[in-house]
Amino acid sequence: MNILKNKSSILVGLMTLLFSGALFASEGAKGWGDMTTSSLGYFSLALFGIAYIFVMAEEFTHLRKSKPVILAAGIIWGSIGWVAGQNGMSVEAEHAVRHNLLEYAELMLFLLVAMTYVNSMEERKVFDALRAWLVKSGFGFRALFWITGILAFFISPIADNLTTALLMCAVIMAVGGDNTKFVSIGCINIVVAANAGGAFSPFGDITTLMVWQKGMVEFWTFFALFIPSAVNFLVPAAIMHFAIPNVKPEASGEEVQMQRGAKRIILLFFMTIGTAVSFHNFLHMPPVVGMLTGLAYLQLFGFFLKKTAHRDNVKPDNVESDANMGSPAAFDVFSPVARAEWDTLFFFYGVVLCVGGLGFLGYLSLASELMYNQWGPTSANIVVGVLSAIVDNIPVMFAVLTMNPDMSIGQWLLVTLTAGVGGSLLSIGSAAGVALMGQARGKYTFFGHLKWTPAIALGYAASIYVHMLVNESYFT
Where are the domains of the chain? Predict the structure, then answer.
């Protein structure tokens, strides 16, 4: 009975917050005005802050990060809608939330296609074959440190940095075994390399994709960040190299064969990227239209694989293999779709709408005035990178794009670089770091990463300096 009473009181409290217009409407009765100092503004800001505390505590609470931000987004826009209705601003509020939903839909569908291709390559054992080859090659710890770092740097611009980091970490764990020092430093190097590699490609990170789809930087212009990104990876790697044990472990005899169609799926992925770029550059259509066209390539090829499943002695109905049959299931394109990172995609929805709501209330204009007008764009963009080590870079970059400060291409490239690589400063600063703390639990830790933060910060500063030096022409 007491439990029911407690639940009832909690429900009443929530309903009061959601539907009591008196708290909010009183301050806007004479017009919308500046809502940054209103009860609605403070309430929305506090709600987003609380939701984000839950996001950062995901590792300890095991509450998926999408849940608190989706709830916060609904409450924030529900509150805005209530107050807007009291002040004759319903149409403006509706247009604002629809604009945010459109931006989210384009990015979500783009990412969904990319994730489907990556999952398809994983299902065809592309990444397993690469991992097995590295493990059986008999490289020493120092050689493997550089190989995994370089591969992470060059794979993450195509696949996402999370998948790349998990793949390379599996290699480090398989070879390093109980050598905690090697595993820890190797994981740090992988996180830095994967984040740096994602910064110079429109496909390498969600933040670069956001900047490209928003039209702030052209597709090929992103590759001007290649040298600064390489510096960001190489400086700390060169420092950490001397701490790697000079040991050569025994090679493994493991072999993994890619399944039929694996190489053709890789080719189709590159064709899909080419289609997306062509739609954007030559047809002036949103890149997501080209990506969804590329999904059709995979669907048609998947149909071919399914119809010719007898060539691999697999079951055509896509029922999972069992011990009696001993053969894999036939390829079905909707299985990779189902295995997409849905928590990440819905987290992105919550962030876009939360930040969009705060922007509608005037907070992003306030932040833009402080950061880009008073501090200057260079200082502001460097701070954005540091913030992305504490707060996820997605809301930080979306906030910058919503502010839409008047900046040169060089400054937009700078904020793309800093938001992409700034998360490497802390293990919790990027999805790659958080994932590897779970994969290499007890060996790669927050404090183990923190020990090398000065070296990573040196690479961060060096990459900014190199960018301003080699890409000087973009700052005019």
Answer: 107-248+256-342
**Two structure tokens written together for 353:** 């709408």
C-alpha to C-alpha distances, 88 to 82, 98, 100, 303, nearest whole angstrom: 10, 18, 21, 53
Q: Can you list the alpha helix ranges (DSSP code H) found in 88-179?
A: 90-123, 126-136, 141-155, 161-176
User: Cβ contacts of residue 56 below 8 Å, gap of 6+?
Assistant: 391, 428
CB neighbours (10 Å) of residue 316? 15
d(C-alpha 317, C-alpha 167), whole Å: 29
Written as six digits, the tokens of 185 are 């430093």
166: tokens are 């998990």
Closest CA to 173 of 194, 187, 159, 156: 187
The model carries a pTM of 0.73
**Which two structure tokens, joined as six digits, stand for 464?**
């900014």
Burial status of residue 395 (CB atoms within 10 A of its CB: 0-12, 13-18, 19 or more): buried
Enumerate helices (H) and strands (E) in the chain, giving the number of each: 23, 0
The vertex-121 CA angle with 119 and 126, nearest 5°, equals 130
For helices 342-361 and 66-86, the axis angle rounded to 10 degrees is: 30
Q: Are 162 and 285 in contact (CB under 8 A)?
A: no
DSSP one-letter code for 372: I
With vertex at residue 149, the alpha carbon angle to CA 144 and CA 150, rounded to the nearest 5 degrees, is 100
pLDDT at 238: 97
Torsion of CA 474, 196, 266, 256, to 10 degrees: 160
Query: What is the structure's pLDDT at 320?
Result: 43
| d(C-alpha 210, C-alpha 404), whole Å | 13
CA 420 – CA 270 distance, rounded (Å): 23
Query: In order along the chain (476 residues), what is the average pLDDT of each group of 10 residues?
Result: 40 37 38 78 93 80 88 95 90 91 86 85 84 79 92 85 80 81 93 93 83 88 95 97 84 77 92 88 88 94 88 55 45 82 84 88 84 90 88 80 89 94 86 78 86 96 96 91
Q: Give the pLDDT score at 33.
A: 65
Residue 62 zone, left/alpha/beta (φ > 0; ψ -120 to 50; rest): left
How big is the chain by its Cα radius of gyration, in Å? 24
Cβ atoms of 206 and 430 within 8 Å: the answer is: no
CB 276 within 8 A of CB 107: no
Residue of 292, 290, 276, 287 whose CA lies nearest to 333: 292
Residue type, 308: T
pLDDT at 458: 97
